[in-house]
Amino acid sequence: MKKAFIFDLDGVLVSTDRYHYAAWKSIADEEGIYFDETINNRLRGVGRRESLKIILERAPRTYGEEEERALAEKKNERYRASLENLTPADRLAGVSETLEALRRTGALLAVGSSSKNARYILGKIGYGDYFDAVADGNDIVNGKPDPEVFLKAAALLHLSPCDCYVVEDAKTGIDAAVRGGFCAVGIHDAAGYDRADHAIKAFSDLLGL
Question: Which residues are paired to 167 by β-bridges?
Answer without folding.
Answer: 7, 185
